[in-house]
Design a protein that fits this description.
mainly alpha; 5 helices; globular
């Protein structure tokens, strides 16, 4: 991970102990780590619509051609596709999760965050 210290700072400042973050970057980091933990710790045994919502949230934030090149957007989309299709075959390596976390930090820097967000009342993960 290229931006470990920056990701740790976002985590400490914007990810609550329980529930969703009210900051876009905090929620994206929280989503990535929830997905990593579910895959590596549980083999996606608890995978449901809530985890799909987390993946789609990451895509919604990072699929941003104002911040990322066409090639980078394609890589983000490929990583998200891997996660969306891994319910039965979890992605266990850190590289994908670390890469998405680095993209969140780059997005945060480009947008001059932190950026406020409304919590999703349908998301229970």
């Amino acid at each position: 991970m290229k931006y470990f210290d920056e990701a740790k700072e976002l985590w400490l400042n914007y990810v609550p102990r329980n529930g969703q973050s009210d900051i876009v970057e905090g929620e994206a980091i929280r989503a990535i780590e929830k997905l990593r933990c579910e895959a590596q710790g549980n083999g996606n045994a608890n995978w449901d619509g809530g985890f799909e919502m987390l993946v789609l949230y990451i895509l919604d934030v990072l699929n941003d051609p104002d911040v990322f090149s066409t090639a980078m957007v394609a890589e983000i989309n490929a990583d998200v596709h891997t996660l969306l299709t891994s319910a039965e075959d979890p992605y266990l390596e850190d590289d994908l999760y670390d890469r998405l976390t680095d993209r969140v930090i780059e997005w945060h820097i480009a947008k001059g965050g932190p950026i406020k967000r409304e919590k999703n009342p349908q998301l229970y993960r």
